Amino acid sequence: MKVKFWGTRGSIAAPGRDTVVYGGNTCCVEILLNCGETVIIDAGSGIRPLGDHLMATRERVNVHLLMTHVHWDHVQGFPFFDPVFKPTTQIAIDGAPRCIKGLRAIFDSGIGDGFFPIRFEDLRADIHYLDELRYGPLKIQNTTITTVPLHHPQGGFGFRFEEDGNSFVFITDNELTRKIWRGKRIEDFAPFCRDADILVHDAQFLPEDIELYRGWGHSDYSTALELALKAEVKHLVLFHHEPSRTDRDEALIEKKCRELAGEQGAHIKIEAAREGSELTL
Ligand SMILES: [Zn+2]
Ligand SMILES: [Zn+2]
């Protein structure tokens, strides 16, 4: 399986010369399975260039779209995903419960004059809601996808992909804590991440600032690392970068996280997600 980052930023898009390395688009990740199927996680602003790429490289677009949750930065790109306007496109949607409601709301909100000039019903693609993941695993050929509930306002799902003996875990918008909430501590997420080849985890805030943002539903690199080490993950990718963080700041976080792992004698590959980068499992 191949994993490509089309949007790595959290909260709001952050384009500009200070974010060209790690990227300015909000959350969107493409997973190309060995069987040839494409799975997209989340529809942040990164799904717009992904849509252009799919239209340019495929005769027709046939994808799964898995939604972690429907906060703004995870749905805002959907109306600009060009394949939704093509009658040959097929999109199977699943993920957090009620995610289809959130995607429809971008088009059909009755707030003020609405958010978008066309209606969900006017999209020409075949968009169908599978609604399987809240009841159990989703199978796509020989890939099995399972979920874990997020510790995040309004909830959501993290995903684990297993294909041909490889495992990829994606958990964003998740607040890891060392105490307080039973069922929400670092060790409670470890079984889900156990022995993963790659773990992508939220690291929006800094360890020195995290107490200011308690309850906002995000983590910092030190707790993400602690989870990765507890679960004996091989490769940790820090994700959902804070929008005001520059490439210099993000490179420093990467360095500090590697140093922290080194101090503990851990052998783990660590990087911060870069828009446009691709990982192979
Ligand atoms: Zn987010
Ligand atoms: Zn969120």
Topology:
Layout: E1 2-7, E2 28-32, E3 38-41, H1 47-57, E4 62-67, H2 72-75, E5 90-95, H3 99-108, E6 126-129, E7 138-140, E8 143-149, E9 157-163, E10 166-171, H4 186-193, E11 198-202, H5 221-230, E12 235-239, H6 247-263, E13 269-272, E14 278-280
Parallel strand pairs: 3-4, 4-5, 5-6, 10-11, 11-12, 12-13
Antiparallel strand pairs: 1-2, 1-14, 2-3, 7-8, 8-9, 9-10
The protein binds zinc ion (ZN) (2 copies).
Task: Give an account of the 3D structure.
Helices cover 21% and strands 25% of the residues. With 281 residues, the protein is of the alpha/beta class. The protein has a single domain, classed as 4-Layer Sandwich (Metallo-beta-lactamase, Chain A). A 7-stranded mixed β-sheet has the order 6-5-4-3-2-1-14. A 7-stranded mixed β-sheet has the order 7-8-9-10-11-12-13. A hairpin with a 2-residue loop joins β9 and β10. α4 crosses α5. The radius of gyration is 18 Å and the shape is globular. Bound molecules: zinc ion (ZN) (2 copies). One zinc ion binds next to loops.
Compact description:
With 281 residues, this protein is α/β, with parallel strands linked by helices.
CATH architecture: 4-Layer Sandwich
Order of helices and strands: EEEHEHEHEEEEEHEHEHEE
β content, as a range?
Answer: 25-35%
Question: What sort of overall outline do the alpha carbons produce when their principal axes are compared?
Answer: globular
Continuous helix count: 6
Strand line-up of the largest beta sheet: 6-5-4-3-2-1-14
Main beta sheet strand tally, sense and closure:
7 strands, mixed
- Ligands, deduplicated: zinc ion
Our count of domains comes out at 1
The share of residues in helices is 10-25%
Please tell me how large the radius of gyration is: 18 Å
Query: End-to-end distance, in Å?
Result: 5 Å
- The CATH superfamily is Ribonuclease Z/Hydroxyacylglutathione hydrolase-like
Computed structural class: alpha/beta
